[in-house]
Amino acid sequence: MLLDPVSYIRDRIRTVPDWPLAGVQFRDITPLLQDPKTFRVLVDLFVHRYMDQQIDVVAGVDARGFILGSVIAYELNRGFVPVRKKGKLPFTTVAEEYELEYGSATVELHSDAIHAGQRVLLIDDLVATGGTMIAAAKLIRKLGGEVIEAAAIVDLPELGGSQLVQAQGIPLFTVCDFAGH
C-alpha cells in the first residue's frame, strides 16, 4: 500500500533538460505510463477524485491528455472527447488560438462533441502557461458545456498557468507540482 501516492507519482516523472529548447526543463510523464503499477496509481488518483461527481463527458487535450483522459473516461463509464491540434479533426469544428511557452497554436473540437448543459472534465498532462487548457475550456463553453474541473498530472507554477486557468473561473486540480525545481 502506498502511503503517499503524490510523491510516488512525482518521483517517477523524468526531467529532460533543454528540451525542446535550451533552458526548458521538460517534465516527461512517459515513465508513469510505462510501468503498470505507476500507471494504475495515477489513473486511480483521478478516478477516485471524480467517481462520485456528476460528469457527462471527459475531454482530453492533444496528445498526452488523450492517454489519461480516455482511460479515466472508460473507468468512469463516460464518453471521451478529443481536443485536437488544428487540422486533425475530419468534421465541422470550432477553433481557439492560444499562446504557448515557445510559440502559438490552435486547438479544435468537433462542433457536435459537447452538448449544451453537459458537465465536462477537462484533462491534460501538465499546466505550464495555461494557454492550452484555457483554449480547450473556451471551446467547451462555446458549445454550451460546463467545465466542472480541469485536471492535470503536473503543475509548473513558476510559469503562471495554473493562476491564469483559475482566473478564468476554471477549477483546477493537479496531482503534483515542480515549484522551484
Automatic annotation (TrEMBL):
Cellular component aspect of the GO annotation: cytoplasm
Main location per the UniProt record: cytoplasm
Organism of this sequence: Chitinimonas taiwanensis DSM 18899
Domain Phosphoribosyltransferase: residue ranges: 33-157
Similarity comment: family membership: Belongs to the purine/pyrimidine phosphoribosyltransferase family.
Enzyme Commission number(s) from the entry: 2.4.2.7
Reactions catalysed according to its record: AMP + diphosphate = 5-phospho-alpha-D-ribose 1-diphosphate + adenine
Entry keyword annotation includes Glycosyltransferase: yes
Protein name: Adenine phosphoribosyltransferase
TM region positions: none
BP GO terms, sorted: adenine salvage; AMP salvage; purine ribonucleoside salvage
PANTHER family: ADENINE PHOSPHORIBOSYLTRANSFERASE (PTHR11776), PHOSPHORIBOSYLTRANSFERASE DOMAIN-CONTAINING PROTEIN (PTHR11776:SF7)
Annotated gene: apt
Keywords: Cytoplasm, Glycosyltransferase, Purine salvage, Transferase
GO molecular function: adenine phosphoribosyltransferase activity
Principal EC category: transferase
